[in-house]
Amino acid sequence: MAKEDFKRFVRSHPELIQYVNNGNMSWQKFYEMYDIYGENNSVWEKYQEIGDTKNVISKTSTVGDTSLKELFNMVKKIDLESVRKGAEGLQKAIALVQDFTTPKATNNYQARPLYRHLED
């Protein structure tokens, strides 16, 4: 097997590059496997399957049109009435806590005696 054949094989299977970049494998080990088993062997399925799942994950987790569509679909599914009720309940709870924590204003009103005559 020639080095050019191996390079062509790696270009057709870019997921192998990830293994080398991550330090999981070396180019020497991949070349030895390629030299021993060739291109069409079940040995490569292990590396291709993991690469395929990584590609699927990276495609779905990238910021782009698909993630914005998913975000808009999530926003569409929100029930605004339940959000409003939840916000009202939260406001009531905050008001109740504030009533307990804020000091009460003392009433400075003093009643005047009932039978006091007005002095003109």
Task: Explain this structure.
It is a single chain. This protein is mainly alpha-helical and 120 residues long. It has a domain at 3-72. The protein is built from six helices and no strands. It has helices spanning 3-12, 15-22, 27-37, 43-61, 65-76, 80-101. The longest helix has 22 residues, at 80-101.
Number of helices: 6
Low-confidence runs of at least 5 consecutive residues: 51-63
Q: Report the helical percentage.
A: 55-70%
Give the assembly state of these chains: single chain
Radius of gyration from CA coordinates:
37 Å
Short characterization:
The protein is mainly α and 120 residues long.
What is the topology?
Elements: H1 3-12, H2 15-22, H3 27-37, H4 43-61, H5 65-76, H6 80-101
Essential attributes:
single chain, 120 residues, mainly alpha, 6 helices
